[in-house]
Amino acid sequence: MLLLNVKGLSMQRDYLVEKILMQKQHLGWTIDKLSKESGVGIRTINRILAKQDVRFSSIDAIMNVLNLEITIDEKLSA
Questions:
Q1: What is the pLDDT of residue 71?
Q2: C-alpha 61: how far from its chain's center?
Q3: Rounded distance, CA 48 to CA 70, Å?
Q4: What is the pLDDT of residue 72?
Q5: HSE of 66, CA atoms in CB hemisphere, 13 A
Q6: Residue 28 and residue 58: Cα distance in Å, rounded?
Q7: What is the 3-state secondary structure (H, E, C) of 39-71?
Q8: Tens digits of per-residue pLDDT, 20-48?
Q9: Cα–Cα distance for residue pair 69/32, rounded to 1 Å
Q10: Contact assessment for residue 2 and residue 56, using Cβ atoms and an 8 Å cutoff
Q11: Are 76 and 9 in contact (CB under 8 A)?
Q12: What DSSP designation does 7 have?
């Protein structure tokens, strides 16, 4: 199980959360809608938005349903 709790990843996590929040807002989706579309539980989404540690697979599912991608360059510079 891969968790986002490794030192040095907090900046990338903050960046991912900002991208998720911006796209969620752009689409006008509620947390409930995001949960239903992504298959990720509401509590997990709330933990992601609070920048708490979660499985990467949860973030990946949300990123996929929001049509968000991160390139290697973005990961390295974030």
A1: 58
A2: 8
A3: 17
A4: 47
A5: 29
A6: 20
A7: CCCHHHHHHHHCCCCCEHHHHHHHHHHCCCCCC
A8: 999 999 999 999 999 999 999 999 999 99
A9: 22
A10: yes
A11: no
A12: T
Q: Do the beta carbons of residue 65 and residue 23 sit within 8 Å?
A: no
List the one residue out of 14, 77, 68 whose CA is nearest residue 37. 68
Q: How far apart are the first and last CA of the chain?
A: 23
Q: Which helix (H) or strand (E) holds 17?
A: helix 10-27
Q: What pLDDT does residue 12 have? A: 75
User: Residue 39 has which token pair?
Assistant: 């298959």
**pLDDT (tens digit per residue) in 46-77:** 999 998 888 888 988 999 999 998 654 444 44
Higher pLDDT, 2 or 17: 17
4 closest CA partner among 71, 54, 50? 54
